[in-house]
Design goal:
The protein is mainly beta. It is rod-shaped. Strands 17, 19, 20, 22, 23 and 24 form a 6-stranded mixed sheet that branches. Strands 9, 10, 12, 13 and 14 form a 5-stranded antiparallel sheet that branches. A 4-stranded antiparallel sheet has the order 2-1-3-4, with no helix packed on it.
C-alpha cells in the first residue's frame, strides 16, 4: 500500500495497493492530489507473503499551487494606465488565499496580430498578493503577467486580457453660432493616424436624444480632420465627432458641443 502522509492524519491521501508477480514489473508511479501544502512523507507498506511487512517512509515537501489574474482598463492613446495583477496560493485543496508580498510580477504586452511578447515593467506584490504595474497606451493587443511559481524553476503565466488603446478626438475648431443652410467647418485632431481610419460628424437635433451621422471623412496622416456641414433647421443642436475603430485602436469620441442655429 502507498500513502501520501500529512501532518494531520485527516489530510493524508491513499494512493492505492499494487501487486507484483514474477512475470510482471512492479508499478513505479501513482497519481495523487495532495490536500494540503507543507511537510509530509510518502510511505510504502511492503508485504511479501502475507506475514512479512516493511514500512518505508520518504520525507517530501508539498508546495502550494499558485495562480494569477490580471485586469487592465481601456486607456486613451498616449495616456498612462495601471494593470492590476492578483496572485493567489492554495495551501489547502479547493481554498485560495492571497500570496505573500515580495513576489516579482512582470507585465508583458503583445501587439494585435503579433506573435512576440514585450516586457512593459516589473513590480513586487504587496500585502494581499496584488501587483500594480503602470503602462502607456500605444495600440490594441493583449496583456499577460509572468511570475515565479511556488515550485522552484517553474513559471506561472496569467491568462491574457485585452490591451485596449482608445483613439483620441480633440476639438480644434468648433463653430457654435451658425446660420441655417450655411456650410461651416468643424475641425478635430483624431489621433493616432491609422490607415483607413474614418471620422464621423454626428449631430443631434433640437429636442432629440438620438445622434445621427451627418458627414464622414477619412482621417489624414497628420490627424487634423476637417468636416463641413450645413444645418438644415434652426434651433439648438449638438455635435460630436466619432473616430471609428480600427484594428489598432478602439473608437474615440469627442465631447459634445452645443451649436445655436439661427
Amino acid at each position: 500500500m502507498v500513502e501520501l502522509s500529512a501532518a494531520q492524519p485527516a489530510d493524508s491521501v491513499g494512493m492505492g495497493s499494487y501487486c507484483a508477480t514474477p512475470t510482471a514489473s512492479p508499478r513505479t508511479t501513482a497519481a495523487v492530489t495532495p490536500k494540503v501544502s507543507g511537510p509530509g512523507s510518502i510511505s510504502f507498506s511492503l508485504e511479501t507473503d502475507g506475514s512479512h511487512r516493511k514500512l518505508i517512509a520518504q520525507p517530501v515537501t508539498l508546495l502550494a499551487a499558485r495562480r494569477a489574474t490580471i485586469s487592465a482598463p481601456a486607456v486613451n492613446y498616449g495616456q498612462r494606465g495601471t494593470a492590476k495583477v492578483t496572485v493567489q496560493d492554495t495551501h489547502r485543496l479547493g481554498t485560495w488565499s492571497a500570496a505573500p508580498a515580495g513576489i516579482t510580477v512582470t507585465l508583458q504586452r503583445q501587439a494585435v496580430g503579433g506573435t512576440t511578447w514585450a516586457t512593459v515593467g516589473s513590480v513586487k506584490t504587496v500585502t494581499g498578493g496584488v501587483a500594480s504595474i503602470p503602462f502607456t497606451s500605444g495600440a490594441n493587443g493583449s496583456f499577460r503577467a509572468v511570475l515565479a511559481s511556488s515550485v522552484p524553476g517553474e513559471t506561472v503565466i496569467a491568462p491574457t486580457v485585452p490591451a485596449v488603446s482608445v483613439a483620441t478626438v480633440v476639438w480644434r475648431v468648433v463653430p457654435t453660432s451658425v446660420t441655417r443652410a450655411k456650410t461651416v467647418t468643424y475641425e478635430v485632431a483624431a489621433a493616432p493616424y491609422d490607415a483607413g481610419a474614418v471620422a464621423h460628424l454626428q449631430a443631434r437635433k433640437p429636442g432629440s436624444t438620438v445622434w445621427t451621422t451627418v458627414r464622414s471623412v477619412a482621417v489624414p496622416t497628420n490627424t487634423i480632420t476637417r468636416i463641413a456641414y450645413a444645418f438644415p433647421t434652426t434651433g439648438t443642436w449638438s455635435v460630436r465627432v466619432l473616430r471609428a475603430a480600427t484594428k489598432q485602436h478602439a473608437a474615440g469620441l469627442s465631447g459634445p458641443a452645443t451649436v445655436k442655429v439661427s
